[in-house]
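thought: user wants a sequence for this fold. calling inverse folding tool.
action: design(structure=
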């Protein structure tokens, strides 16, 4: 018998400062007044978890447990406008304090058994989610979300040989909207662009089926699989005109997340691990998939289908003086939906580490985005406007 309890507590605080400058290039150059925004994000998180393992005999095991996560987060957003004297004045109409409380309680169990060359695992998790949101001084924007979900898991495996396996699996998973996606108070990125969360956003549920094959030799491990995912209530960012204009008559555009019906993804993945010597390890994976989104919003068809891919390469080498050197490279292929086209993105991370004090400490040195290429470039095209964006 094995019984384990775990408790964790985190207290985080972040500040984000935004400085917005805007210039009109056509038909004449106009340097407009600047704006500033200050966002403060204090957050507390609690985790309670307990697990129990009952081994019946060799090749058979039962597990059960519970897990509760509690998040208490505040977003204090202050928007400032520059006046003709160069002073920045607080705009009380756009400034707000957003409180987000999330409680997720889960009960789960699973049973696994092995019969000679065949093994199987059955599992079930129940989750109860309770979310409360409020805008200080705006009780009309308060909202609550309460829902219960069940997540089954089925994993089957068959040994074709001593190092060769065939697997079949099914599982259901959930993707919850982050607090920013729920915050109904608008925030500005420019005079003509605002972002507004959707307090009525539902979580997205995905059912996934995967058929896999793996084989292992002395220096190489090979894995490949085909998979099919079906998701409901998928999140998608929608850009639309608000109907309001700036003082110059330019339309103001709002970007918001919505639940856009369904998403189907059919894909193929292949991965290989190569270990030529004891302290050298290389991994390469490639994933190709077809993604189809179906859904209408305000009588507009936002359905789209795209073929995309991504690949990852990881190398871990032990250098002289027992220094670990790890490099991670990733390329995400271009993709698109009804309104947006995303360009491909490449990035490289590198890290060095060395154990010191007889293994009681570690020195690390990390470089993120080594070649300064991790940029998400996007084009948005609707019936009323076109825009290009770059985020880094």
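)
observation: tool returned 392 residues.
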């Amino acid at each position: 018998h094995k019984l384990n309890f775990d408790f964790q507590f985190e207290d985080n605080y972040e500040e984000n400062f935004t400085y917005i400058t805007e210039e009109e290039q056509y038909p004449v150059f106009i340097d407009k007044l600047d704006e500033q925004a200050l966002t403060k994000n204090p957050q507390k998180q609690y985790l309670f978890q307990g697990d129990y393992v009952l081994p019946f005999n060799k090749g058979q095991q039962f597990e059960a447990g519970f897990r509760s996560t509690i998040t208490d987060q505040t977003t204090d957003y202050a928007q400032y406008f520059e006046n003709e004297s160069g002073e920045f004045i607080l705009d009380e109409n756009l400034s707000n304090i957003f409180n987000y409380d999330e409680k997720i309680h889960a009960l789960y169990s699973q049973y696994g058994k092995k019969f000679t060359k065949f093994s199987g695992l059955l599992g079930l998790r129940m989750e109860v989610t309770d979310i409360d949101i409020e805008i200080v001084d705006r009780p009309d924007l308060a909202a609550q979300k309460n829902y219960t979900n069940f997540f089954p898991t089925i994993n089957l495996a068959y040994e074709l040989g001593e190092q060769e396996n065939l697997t079949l699996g099914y599982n259901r998973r959930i993707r919850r909207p982050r607090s920013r996606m729920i915050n109904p108070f608008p925030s500005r990125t420019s005079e003509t662009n605002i972002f507004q969360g959707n307090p009525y956003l539902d979580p997205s549920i995905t059912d996934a089926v995967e058929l896999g094959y793996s084989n292992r030799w002395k220096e190489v491990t090979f894995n490949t699989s085909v998979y099919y995912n079906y998701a409901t209530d998928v999140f998608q960012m929608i850009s639309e005109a608000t109907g309001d204009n700036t003082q110059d008559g330019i339309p103001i555009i709002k970007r918001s997340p919505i639940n856009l019906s369904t998403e189907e993804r059919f894909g193929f993945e292949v991965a290989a691990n190569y270990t030529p010597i004891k302290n050298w390890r290389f991994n390469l994976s490639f994933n190709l998939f077809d993604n189809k989104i179906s859904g209408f919003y305000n009588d507009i068809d936002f359905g789209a289908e795209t073929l995309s891919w991504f690949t990852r390469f990881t190398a871990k080498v032990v250098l002289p003086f027992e220094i670990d050197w790890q490099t991670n490279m990733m390329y995400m292929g271009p993709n698109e939906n009804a309104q947006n086209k995303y360009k491909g993105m490449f990035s490289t991370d590198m890290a060095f580490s060395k154990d010191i004090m007889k293994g009681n400490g570690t020195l690390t040195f990390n470089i993120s985005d080594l070649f300064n290429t991790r940029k998400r470039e996007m084009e948005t095209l609707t019936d009323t406007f076109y825009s290009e964006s770059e985020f880094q």
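thought: summarizing for user.
answer: Here is the designed sequence. The first strand starts at residue 2 and ends at 20.
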